[in-house]
Amino acid sequence: MIDFFIAHFSYGILFIWSILEGEIGLTLAGYMVKVGKFDLPQVLLLTIGGALIGDTAVFLTGRLFKTKTEILLKNYEEKMQRIESWFLHYGSWIVIFERFVYGTHIPALLMLGVSGFSFWKFLLLDIIGVVLWAVTFTTLGYYFGHTVIDLLTFVQRHLTIALLVILFFYIIYLLQKEEEV
C-alpha cells in the first residue's frame, strides 16, 4: 500500500490531504523527505497552510451557521460533553492539542465557532497547534516511515479494535493495582 502512495503522492495531494485530515499524508511526506523525494520546508509550509485553511473554514462554519451547527452538534452529545469538559479544565490549551485526539478535531472547532470564541485568539492558538502537529508527524514519518504509516492506517481503519485493546490493558492494569492494595 505504501508503494502505491509513494508512486502517486505529490505536493498538491499533500496540501489537499492537510486541509481534510493529514496525519497519514504528513507521515508519508516525512518518509519521502528522508528518501529525497520531498523537500522539508515545502512539506511544512504546505501542510501548515492547508491545515490552517481547513481549521479556519470549520471554525467559521460554526460561527456563520450557528443554528444549523448547534443542531448538528446535538447528534454528537457525548463527544461534545467530553470536549466541553476539556475546555473547562484545560481552557485555551485545548485549541492547541485537540488536533492530536482522534475524532474530536472537527466537533471542537465547530464548538469554538458557535461559542463566540475570539477568532484572533483561535487563529494564534491554532497556528501553534498546527505547527506542533506538522513537525510531530513529519518527524515520525522521517524516522519511522513504514512502521508509523502502517500503524496510523491500522488505527484509522480499526479504531474500535484499537480502543478495545487499550481498554483491555487498562482493565488489567486496574485489576493489578487493586490486588496490590
SSE map:
Layout: H1 2-8, H2 11-20, H3 23-34, H4 40-64, H5 66-74, H6 77-90, H7 93-97, H8 105-115, H9 119-157, H10 159-180
Helix pairs in contact: 2-3, 2-4, 3-9, 4-5, 4-8, 4-9, 5-8, 9-10
What does this structure look like?
The structure is a single chain. The mean pLDDT is 83. The chain has helices at residues 2-8, 11-20, 23-34, 40-64, 66-74, 77-90, 93-97, 105-115, 119-157, 159-180. It has one domain. Helices cover 85% and strands 0% of the residues. With 181 residues, it is mainly alpha-helical. It has 10 helices and no strands.
Task: Determine the fraction of residues in helical runs and give it as a percent range.
Answer: over 70%
Order of helices and strands: HHHHHHHHHH
Treating each run of at least 4 consecutive H or I residues as one helix, how many helices?
A: 10
Strand content: under 5%
- What would the average pLDDT be, to the nearest integer? 83
Low-confidence stretches: none
User: Which radius of gyration do the C-alpha atoms yield?
Assistant: 18 Å
Name the structural class.
Answer: mainly alpha
| Biggest pleated sheet | none
Question: End-to-end span in angstroms?
Answer: 48 Å
Shape: globular
Number of strands: 0
Number of domains: 1
In short:
With 181 residues, the chain is mainly α. Helix content is 85%, strand content 0%.
